[in-house]
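Minutes, project check-in
Item: structure for the 744-residue chain
Input as provided by the requester:
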Amino acid sequence: MRHDTLVDAIGNTPSVRLRTDAPDGVEVYAKLELLNPYAMKDRVARRIILEARRTGALREGAPIVESSSGTMALGVALVGTYLGHPVHIVTDPRIDPVTLAKLEAMGCSVHIVEAMTAQGWQSARLERLADLMRDLPGAWWPQQYSNPDNPTAYRTLAAELLHDLGTVDVLVGSVGSGGSLCGTSAALLEHLPDLKVVGVDCVGSVLFGQPDLATRKQSGLGNSLHPDNIDYRLFDEVHWLSDDEAFDATKRLAREEKIFAGNTSGSVYRVLTHLAARAAPGTRLVGIMPDRGDRYAETVYRHEAAGPVATAPTEVPFGTTVHSWSCAVIPRRDRPVLFFVESNTTGTGMLALRTATRLGLAPVLLTKDPARYAGLEETGCPVVRCDTEDAAAVRAAADSASARRSVAGVTTTSDFYLVHAALLARSFRRPGHAPDTAALCRDKSLSRAVLSEAGVPQPAHVVVESGDGVAAAVARVGLPCVVKPADGSGSQDVRWCADEASALAQAASIFAATENVRGQKRAGKVLVEEFARGPEYSVEMFCTGGEAVCVGITERTTTALPYFVETGHLFPAVLPAAAEAELAESARHALEAIGFELGPAHVEVRLTPAGPVVIEVNGRLAGGMIPELVRAATGIDLLDQHLRAVTGRPLALGADRARHAGLRFLTVTDSGRLTAITGAAEAARVPGITSVVTTGSAGRTVCPPRDAYDRLGHVVAVGSTRQEVETALETATALIRVETTPAA
């Protein structure tokens, strides 16, 4: 076949029938992607780079910077340098000499990080990449893990399979960035709806619910991160192989089929032959073989197994931690349903829907108003509209949506719907809070009474149900005081009051509002509380098996009085051991008092000179992206664990790293209309910054924060020390400019 350029030669790889043992009538093919000029990811590099040039994202002659330890590096080097771009590859010491030689021979600049961070090699590489992006004017980053052109590139692979084979019954592929198997299977499913998709991962990879092991030796598959390009809805089954099993299979592939390939191809071969041996006559199976074996000649092919190598997988429930060849069935159809009764709008709500899909569940959002949720459409989550204030209507909508599928659980990420979720979970006999416990978390006047009976230290307080009792409550509590609704959330309508007049005005404002921001009827009760002096913390707790585990303590900063809006977080808080123990014990005492027994709780505490006092008990995950800080600092994914808890799955609350993480919210100092938020890209390149998110749209009326809804985005940083995190946050936020004009 003639090609005008080397770039045109990418693709059109052969599908070769294998000689593996299989029942008569079973056909087994290998799609030899390793016969691309360098490897399978040549397809991705070509698609991503040509599309970036077409759109202008990559300018003529501009530098290309990518993080890769293998075939993506080679693909970017091939296409990038061929088209006249300087190419910089960030990698780590695990890069093999053959790949390094190829990259340097093509004229690439190769940057090898010296040591992994507590989050692994990929995190260390991304930090170096950020430095290069800052130092190289006009540099462009392909972002293979989140670039939608990654999976799109494999539509050509799917078309080749259809052309060559006509039909495929089972597709087996390795999973790393998620592009190849998800892109190919998504395209094939448009023509072959009964296709079975089998993913191959490695032991110690987080992609399919396993703990991260930085010691794993396999390359080309597995990950320490969750790439955006993995569509977990496409999989029917997943297999994990240990290093010994993968390397043994790679050598068997060469010996038995004469295909000298890398460990990703070997892993696919092991699973492919296992499935073929058990397939029904007439089944056609295809395995995608991504890479050649030359770069593994002195590693994989010289490796000796430390012990016996499994000859068949152990089938386990999805979510079970594995150590050797294991598999789990997660059928694409009829997955167990996890109902979300509404969601939060400013924190981890949409992320929770994606996490549920990653856990092999079918999330369904029950909501009165889908338009409330920015980013909902991108999650791909089915949405059922119903009156979520009507328990009977919610149950009827859930029955209809489940369509005879099993119901794995019911939950919510919103304070406002704790009781609603508890009632629906009880009606399905699924794990959840007792509705009475949920009501105590929801109504602070009720929880105050229960905590008082249990002797839990808390501010002096009075519950007022009409304006007539406010003055007496202020006199009893003393000034200054805090006036707030009994059923508020997100610091809404919470005010510090220096005198009786301001307390009366604030209480009157609360009583005048008959509905909250979700359109729910207000409780009609006001709390007048003593102002507890001292730094504010939140204790992140998780309850399981009758035990309340302290995952960590968050240091919180808030706006200047009279408001209490959170402006930033640091996790973990740096405290003396005695103070840390006191805070954790006060949270445990509070949860025990209200009968809280399952899942995450976010207990807000002030550390006064007399000791900790409990401000609020929130029966849910922390908001304000605190779960993401916990994950970055400790490796504990609280959102993942929360969904496991409400679906009755095993939990893993042990930390696997010790880092620091922090967040700053973006706000304005003067009221007006938002015209632009600039500098976000520059802020994202600051070393240590892992996320910059802006949520304000031009034309929106903005003001200094009075509640959580007045914030305009956030910046997240991760580092080895608290000082590293604070420095990164200070540097990044100084680069971001929130521009406004005076409101009419």
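Outcome recorded: DSSP finds 22 helices and 30 strands in the chain.
No further action items on this chain.
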